[in-house]
Input
Amino acid sequence: MAILIIIVFVLGYTAIALEHNIKIDKAASALITGVVCWALYVFSIDASGHDIVHIIEHGVESITFKNGLIHHLYEIASILFFLMGAMTIVEMVDAHEGFTVITDRITTTNKTKLLWIICILTFFFSAALDNLTTTIVMISLLRKLIKDKETRWMFVGMVVLAANAGGAWSPIGDVTTTMLWIKGQLPDVGNMIVNLIIPSLAAIILPLIILSFTFKGEAERPSKQEYSGHYLNPTSPFERNLVFTLGVLGLLFVPIFKTVTHLPPFMGMMLSLGVLWVVTEIIHSSKNKEDKHPLSVIGVLQKIDVASVLFFLGILLAVSALQEIGHLDAAAQFLDAKLDGNIFSINIAIGLLSSIVDNVPLVAAAQGMYPISGAGDFAANGQFWQFLAYCAGTGGSALIIGSAAGVAAMGLEKIDFGWYLKKISWLAVLGYFAGVGVYMLMHAH
Output
C-alpha cells in the first residue's frame, strides 16, 4: 500500500503538470489524488490492531481520528478560509475599480522604464495582496498598456518573477509563506520581513538590470476599449478610494490581529472581510438591486476562483497522507544523507524542485519532514525556515508551471511552456541564485 500511495501521488502530479495537454483541470486531479491517498492509507495501517475486515464492518472513524485526519483538516481549513477571505477582499477592490488609483498614474511608454515600474509595483503588491491575485491584476493592467503580444509576454513573464519574489518575504504574499506562518515555523512577521526582503529584491533586480540592456524601444498602447459590462456599474471616486484603502488596510491588519490576539490568521481575514462587507452595504444602500449586486460581496463571491481553493485542498490532503504514512520522514533522511544535512543545499534543492512540482506540497512536505526544534536552524524563525520561504517562493519561477502565478499567466495569456523556458527561465534562475547568494552572505558566520 505504501508503494501504491507513492504511485497515486506521482500519477496525480503528472496529471496536474499536464493539465493543458490532457484538458482536465488540475483541481480535479488534486482532489482525486488527495482522497485516494488517504483511502489507501486507511487500509494500509490499522492503529487499533484490527484487520481489514473489521475496518470495513465497523468504519474508519477511530483510525482516521488516531492517525491525524482531523488534525490535518483543521490546518488545511485554516489556510483555505484565509485564501478565500483574501481573494474576496481583492475581488471587491477590483469590482469597485479601486486599482485605478495606481494604474491611472502610469503614463510612460518606454519599455525599460515601464518594465521597472510594473515589476516594482508587482513586487510590493504581491507582498500585500498575494502573488496569484497580483499577477491577475497586473496582466489585466498590461493588456491596457501594451498592444504587441510578444512584448506583453515578456512583461508578463517578469511579472511572474516579481510576484513570486514579492510573495516570498510576506506572511500573506504566498500560500507557502502563509503555511509557514500559520503552522508556527515563521511566527515573527517582522523577523521574516527583515531577513527575506533583501534576498527577494535581488531575485528580481538582477533580471531587471539584465533586461535593461537588451529590452529597448517604446511600447505601443492598444486603442482604449470599454469592455462589455466594465462600466455598467460605475463607482464614484470616493467609493473607489474608500474600498481600495479599506481592502489594503484590511489585508495588512491580519498579521497585527494575529500578533495581538493569537487567534489563527483566517480569523483576522474574516474580520477584515466583514468590515468591508458592512461598509460596502452601507455606501450602496440607496442603489437599486441591479446596480448594487455586482458591487456587493454576494455578487463578488461568484467570481472567486473556487477551483484554485479545491486544488490546494487536494494537494494538502495528499501531502498529509504521505506525512502520516512516513514517506516524508524517509525523504528527510534521504536529503540529509545526500546533502550532508546542509540546510542551504537542502533548501536550494527544494526551491529548484518547486519549478517542476508545485511549491505548496513541497513546503507542506518540509513541514512534515522537519519538526520545529527548541533552538538552532530548525527552531521557530530559524534559518532553515526562513531560507525555505525564500527558495520555495522564488524557485518556482524557473518554469511557468512551477508557481500559482505562472500557471495563472499561462492560462490568461496563453503563454507557451517552451517560450517561457527560452525567454524567462534563465533570468529566473539567475535571480534565484542571486537571492541565494545575498541570503548566505547576510547569514555568514
